[in-house]
Structure formats: C-alpha cells, structure tokens
Amino acid sequence: MIGELDSLMRKRGIAALLCYGDSTLGNPELAYLTRCELPRGGVYLKKRGDEPLLVVSALDVGSARKGIVKNVKTYNDYGYPELVKRHGRRKAFVELLARIIRESRVRGRVALYGRNEASSVISVFNDLRRKRIALVGEERPTILDIARRTKDDWEIDAIKRAGEKTLNVVRRLEEFLRNLEIREGVATYGGEVVRIGWVKRLIRVWCAEEGLSLPEDHIFAVGPSSADPHEKGVEHEPIREGEPIVFDIFPQDSTGYWFDFTRTYAVGKPSRELLTMFEDVLAAHNEAMDAIREGAPCMEPMQAACRLFKSRGRLTILDLYQGNREAETRGFIHSLGHGIGLTIGEEPYLTLNEKQKLEKNMIATVEPGLYYPEIGGVRLEDVVLISGTKPTILAQHRYELEP
Amino acid sequence: MIGELDSLMRKRGIAALLCYGDSTLGNPELAYLTRCELPRGGVYLKKRGDEPLLVVSALDVGSARKGIVKNVKTYNDYGYPELVKRHGRRKAFVELLARIIRESRVRGRVALYGRNEASSVISVFNDLRRKRIALVGEERPTILDIARRTKDDWEIDAIKRAGEKTLNVVRRLEEFLRNLEIREGVATYGGEVVRIGWVKRLIRVWCAEEGLSLPEDHIFAVGPSSADPHEKGVEHEPIREGEPIVFDIFPQDSTGYWFDFTRTYAVGKPSRELLTMFEDVLAAHNEAMDAIREGAPCMEPMQAACRLFKSRGRLTILDLYQGNREAETRGFIHSLGHGIGLTIGEEPYLTLNEKQKLEKNMIATVEPGLYYPEIGGVRLEDVVLISGTKPTILAQHRYELEP
After folding, report:
1. What's the pLDDT score for residue A369?
2. Do the Cβ atoms of A231 and B62 come within 8 Å?
3. How confident is the model over A257-266, as a mean pLDDT?
4. CA-to-CA distance for A219 and A226, rounded, in angstroms?
C-alpha cells in the first residue's frame, strides 16, 4: 500500500525515490505514484519522510493537479529551456534530473523507478552516478513492488468497478450466444453463419459502451484454435456445435486499473470430452480457491490445482518440470494466476516455486485450464481479493458451459 | 528502416542487439523487432550479419511464429525450469539471458534494448557485465531510434490504414455535430442538452466498430476547457454556441501502429476571435507544410509556424524561451509535431532547436494551435509522410470550423 513507502525506504536505507517517464500510460510505476494522467510524463521525487514533488511540462500542470502529489512544479521552474539550449534535448533531461535532486537536497541513496527504454535508463543511471548522485536500481521485489502488491481501498474499488463493467459485457455476450441457432453443425444468427471476427467486433463495441478499453484485445477462440491459451480468435472461423468457446477478457478501465475474466462455453450439445474437461477445471478451481488464505505461500493454490488435475489423469506443468515435454501443449500448461492492478501481470504470482506469501489485500487471478490441440481449451478465471481464510471473488458469475 | 540494422551495428561497433520485455504491448522496441504479439514478452537477440533469434515461453510459440523472426526457441530449450529451481524466479531471468548470449557465441559489445522497469534494466545491466558480457546502453539516438524513424513500406501502409479508419470516425462525428440544434445557446440532440461525456462514449463506440483502440482515450474538449491542450473533455459540460470544440483523436490500430488527427469545430455562429484564431492556425499549418522537405532541419517548419504566428501578433514558445512566461498558457504553447509509429511520440520531433534533418519516409504530425484560457483552443493536425520537396498528407480532410 502506498502508505508503506516511508517505512520501506527506511528499512532499505533509501533516501529518495526517483521515477520518470514520457507518459503515465505504459508506465505503471509513474501512474501509481502520481495517480493522474500525464500524456508527456514527468519526474517524481520523494525524499524519505517528505511529501513528494512532481515536475511536469507547463502544458500538463492541469492534469498533474488532478493527482495525489500536492507539490507540482514545471520544467521551466528548473530552467529547462536553457538546459536544452546549452546541452541539447537529449543531455538536457539528465541535467534536469540532477538539478531536481540537488535542489531537493537529497543526501543518500536514490532508487530509480519508471518503465523506460533500456538506453534511457542506462544513460540516466551512468550519467547521474558520474555526477556523484548515489543512484541505485533495487533488486526485485523493489520498494514499489512491495507497496503495489497489497492494494489500497481505492485500488480495490477501482478493480471492483472494472469487474462490474466486465460482467455487463459478459452478460451481453452470453445473451448473444443463447440466441444462436445451430444449422448443419455451425452457429448462425438471423440465418447467417457467425464468424469469430464479427463476435469480436461486438465485444469491442460493448466494452466501449462500458468505457472499458482493450489495449491487449481479448480472446474469443473456438474449437482446436483455443488449445493455444493466447490465441485471440481466428477472424473467419465459424462456431461449431459442441466445441469449446474460450472467452477471456482483460480490459483496462479509465482509472488505469485492469480486470481479467474467463469463461468457457459451448453452443449446442458439448462433446463428452469437453464436459469432462470442464468438470475437471471447475474442480481444480474449487481446490485452488480452498487453498487461498492469508499467510499461505503463493505456490500452494497452484500445487492444489495440479494435485487435482493429476488425480484425474491430466498432465500439468509439474510433468514439464520433470522433463515431459508433452506437457508443453497438453493438460494444465500454464500457471494458476497472477496479480493485477495497474498492469495485467504483477505480484503475486500463483506459480510453482513461488515462496512469497499471500497477504491481506493482494488481488490475483485464479485461472486453471486444460488444453488439447485436437479439442481446444477450457479455462475458468476469477479475480480474488485475499483476506483472512477465504478469498473474495470480485466479480461473481456462474460457471456453466451453456451460455 | 529495419534493413539498416546490420549497417548501423557495424558503424557503431555493436556485435549484437539484445531486447527483452514482459509483453510486446507497451514495449515498442520488442514489437518492432519481432512484429508479433507476445503477451508474455520474450528475448530477442540479433548478432551482426545473422538472422535474429527469438526466445519465448512455450505458450507463445504460436504467437511468435506469426512474426518476422524465423528462428523461434522456447525458454525450456535453454533449461529455464532448472534455472528457476536453482536461482529463484528473479535471478533465473538474468541467467537465461546469459545462457542465450553465450550459446549464440556473441563476441563483442551487446547493446541492450526494450522498455522495462528501471530496476530490471539496471540489474540486467550490472549482472550481465559482472558475468563479463560487454553489455552497453546506447546514447540516443540509438540504432533502433535511427532504424525506426524512417518507415518501411509495410509501416507506412499500416499508418495509412489507421488513418483511413480514423477518418471514418471523424466523418461520423461531423455528421453528429451537424445534426445538433442550438437552444438557448447550448447544443441539443432530440431535445436534450448534449453533454461531453455522451459524445465521448459515441466516439469510443465508433472507434471500436472500426477496430481502433484508444489506449490514451481522446480529446473532445469545448470552450475554455480546450485551452489546456491535454484536457480530454469535461464529462458534464454542454457544448455552447460559437465556442471551440477541439477534437483530437490518437487511436492505435490492431497492427500496433498509431494515428493522430485533430480538427476544431464550432456549432452555431463562431465568435469573431475564434474565427481569427482559426484563420491564423490554418495559415501557420500552411507555412509549416511549405517548410517540410527532405533534408530540411526539423526545426524549420516549427520556425515557419512561429514566424507566421508572430506576424499576426500571437505569442509562441519562442517568447517563453526568451523569458515571457505568459507564453506558457497563451498563444502557440506547444511544438509543431512529432513522429508516430509504434508509439504516439517518437522521432522526428518538429521542435525548436532540433537540428536532426527530415529524411525520406519519416512520418510526423503537423499540429499548430492557439490557446487562450478565456476562449479555449484551436488546433489543426495532420499526419504527413516526408518525401521529396512536398509532404504527403496520410489522411486528407477539409479544414473548416463548421462541422
């Protein structure tokens, strides 16, 4: 939680946090620390025990003031135009950073943050150190990783709201699927064969209507194509009776917070194998949920899901780790889940070998799945809030193959 | 252009390019080098003179093969699971990078690329150097900056297509605006007062229908609010007769390529000042266009626009650079334009002091504007392709205040 910054800085012997970026979009660390939208980015500096400072372009002062940093200054306040004239645009930025750090009278180690091109990070790192500023890159988990992995109330609310909007889209899709008619083994609507590209356009429009954006698109993959967990859906494919439809939607709300949700459907009568896959995935989901509690290592729910799959004769990543490469493409071929927040993949990671403990107010996906190249996939995914001995599902929705 | 990589590497004495990331989304360098979507990212390595290598999760092999790198391997091929067991998840990644570089028998300096958290970049940089791999961060413009700033044909096509889709949205908005009725000084539709939030939802739906996403939203700002060039639009504001409506749309197409387009409208009779502002901005746009040609320094079109504004008694950034801080909020308060491609802000920068020359196949915005806090803003923006003595506008559209 953001209130932990000072105590984490003290524990690690860090005198100041420096974070910069050319936009808050695609820069979750800068977005987290400033809680505003900065289309040209900015420079954030927080001395231990002090209120933070945010320096932005004069154009962005209005946007910056909508955020949580009270002390907003402009590049011009630090004489940036002269720095550009004297050093050129590229070197001027490092000079600006040095000036901001010096005028803030930072004494001690400065940890560097922000998501930026490697060339920029390395030159800032080397050039500031050459200027005798004790810049350091932290080992992961960094102070910010730790702060961000347990969510503040306003973050939980933002993720919940994204979840509610997501469920609105899910319900519209299910209604659409219920209205399909099977003709000669393929789904039709108003007499026409339904192609995946068309459904995907509908989903995008429904998201837009909810104010959700889809920076990474979404997955609506059917039949054998869905055996690749990341296949987004093949434009011209029809929906065949009884084959799996994997619908995985991971929208970003206007707050910057993401959601992540998956259900698997079939229209018409599902095949016997698909039904069994669905039952096994749901059972693994239940086992995993039962293993999620404050204080448990992140690997435990993953291990619980793997045990369940194994007991039903399914391959899992455990088999892959023991050298069976068939488990690269058959069975439970990915991890159980990952944290979400200002990114769609962050701590905690519900993977094998992850010893990090589940903590109160962590938020993570729980998404067991089974995949077979000749059939396709089944995946069921919820987002849960960790708290006490029982996780809370943030967007509750039924689990059924029938839409 | 991507074909320049080898010769640029030779010129700079770089033996290999190393690029990594946790997703191609938000990682334009990785997206450029691989030309595919990798939801979990990957590691790209190119030795000078050799075909590149791409290493991804086993789950992403299908996605990776859709790209331009022929030689695709998996983390498992490099024994990643054992590395995780031996070193833990966080250290294992650096070990993996070291193994990939060593097995590729790279001799010489390796330039590091990719957009990643500073803590990750610094630890990769320090740890690989400790392992005696001669990793370097390049000064900007880097090899990739130079390659990316002149566009390949397929990139020009992708940007053009994004422009065509954008114009479809622009035309729908203009039709909507033409159908508004002024009542008691504010715009209404079907008898109801039109609020900005409603128009913005329509624009989002139209973009979704075109398959365009809006990762940074869009600007539909009216009246005095539009005096802040980055104001996205105030939800509850109505549209008042004769006041400026700044519509700036910067969508990303499914190819990953962006577009950027602005027009300014007024419904009902525009004020005298607004008309003059519009005329001056259009004149500046023309002057700037006349100054754009292969071989001219990037600053020239910006200087031409500033000269025009000055001749009409307007403040510009030149005044700010000469110490007049009124020019922070009044007049032509931003630069003329910027490159677009896999990002919405990249080289070339059409700013004062930018000596870089315009080159054939660069693509940039041309977007002069005028802003006054009590009136609002006027901005006209096109995307142009630099070629010969006359730039080509990639999405041609009329310039009129009346929608």
Report:
1. 98
2. yes
3. 98
4. 9
Across the interface, of A26, A126, A320, the residue whose CB is closest to B26 is A26
B117:A205 CB<8 A? no
> Do A114 and B118 count as a contact with CB atoms less than 8 A apart?
yes
The CATH number assigned to the domain with range B2-148 reads 3.40.350.10
Q: Give CA–CA dist B353/B336, Å, rounded.
A: 12
Instruction: Check CB contact of B29 with chain A, cutoff 8 Å.
Output: yes
Contact predicate A36/A70, CB 8 Å? no
Q: How much is the average pLDDT of B236-256? A: 97
CATH code matching the domain that covers A150-393, chosen among 3.90.230.10, 3.40.190.10, 3.60.20.10, 3.40.50.450: 3.90.230.10
Q: Are B301 and B336 in contact (CB under 8 A)?
A: yes
Read off the tokens for A311: 């007991």
- Per-window interface: B 109-148 vs A, CB < 8 A: 111-126, 136-140, 142
Whether A2-148 shares its CATH topology with A150-393 is answered: no
CB atoms inside a 10 Å sphere around CB A313: 8
Q: What is the pLDDT of residue B40?
A: 87
Q: How do residues B281-310 score in pLDDT, each as one tens digit?
A: 999 999 999 999 999 999 999 999 999 999
What are the helix (H) ranges across A131-152? 143-149
Contacts of B117 in chain A (CB under 8 A): 29, 113-115, 142
pLDDT tens for B274-288 read 999 999 999 999 999
* Domain residue limits, chain A: 2-148, 150-393
pLDDT at A139: 86
CB of B168 less than 8 A from some CB of A: no
